[in-house]
Amino acid sequence: MSKVYYFKDQDKIGLVLKELGIGDFSGMRVPVKVHMGEIGNRYYVKPNFIRLIVSELRKADAEPFILDSTVAYTAPRATVLGYRIVASLHGFTKRNIKCPIVIDDKGFPTSLNDFTFEVVENIYNSECMVVVSHVKGHILAGFGGAIKNLGMGGVTKNTKKFMHNGAKPVYDPSKCSLCGTCASICPLNAITIKGDRVEINYRKCGGCGNCAASCPTGALTCRIGNLQDLLALATKACISGKQVIYVNVLKNITRSCDCDPRAGPIICPDIGYLASRDIVAVDKASLDLIDEVKPRLFEKIHKIDPYRQVKRAQEIGLGSTEYELIKL
Ligand code: SF4
Ligand code: SF4
Asked: Which terminal CB of the chain, N or C, has fewer other CB atoms within 10 Å?
């Protein structure tokens, strides 16, 4: 059974990282995968916590650097230069964090289950990683934790687009019963019933696959696959063969993700920090702890079952939904 450490005081991160074997990273270049927040977003994991992790890596004789990748939508973070400026505005500078800040924009293909994911260069070339994830809601994936941080944030813009487009629906009117479920659950209101058929506004559709997952007759199917399933696969492409420590931050738990300038409001009281060597366990524990305080929180808000990505990640061998929670 996987161990998940739970602590409320950020100063315990050193103790936890030692328990999780940070010493194994000695002598290695270690990407610390983070999300430095879109311009206008205030809820991303702050540099003062990341600095503590960098300091522990240095004490372990590792060579850390902060890493994220450019985004596929139109925003300052879509280019390396634009992301550098945003990172600097948010306090992610070499001077403040005490290590280099790297923004990846290119990657290398990795094939899995008939798909090819381009893993960003500095993850592709690493033997180990620390992945720090802000846990919050996500309009298209239900929630975002470690799987979302790597599955979308660890791949190139081409692969990000491939996943969103691949989750868009294909409609077969001959199978449609006009029940209206798809229109009622679409988080972006991209579906309407018009006369005797369903109409999909593909400009509004963000590609989550929720309509296809909820269609009772099979009239809707995803072009390639459900977004959460693709995130789990892309995560596998990022972490296969590597040693990884995951740190999930359950603070400032917002309705939407750190890519969203209007991600608020905060929808759950702060819970603390979780850390593990198991990506499935750390995300499952995050959802379970939120569930204890606010049952089915993300499902109620986004009409998407956030456990799907966790279950899929377990099915493809990334870890276990069974875990031991160790409170410090
Ligand atoms: S959920 Fe499926 S069956 Fe129901 S209206 Fe939508 S496409 Fe038709
Ligand atoms: S995939 Fe379906 S549910 Fe998701 S945004 Fe597009 S139309 Fe809406």
From this structure: N
Rounded Cα gap, residues 253 and 280, in angstroms: 19
216 in the same domain as 120: no
pLDDT in tens, 228-285: 999 999 999 999 999 999 999 999 999 999 998 999 999 999 999 999 999 999 999 9
Which atom of ligand 1 is found nearest the CA of 171? 7
Q: Is 141 in the pocket of ligand 2 (CB under 6 A)?
A: no
Residues linked to residue 254 through DSSP beta bridges, in sequence order: 266
The verdict on the CB of residue 200 being under 6 Å from ligand 1 is: no
Count of CB atoms situated within 10 Å of the CB of 180: 12
| Pocket of ligand 1 contains residue 180 by CB under 6 Å | yes
pLDDT for position 37:
96
> Residue 281 sits in which domain range?
2-162+228-327
264 neighbors 254 (Cβ within 8 angstroms): yes
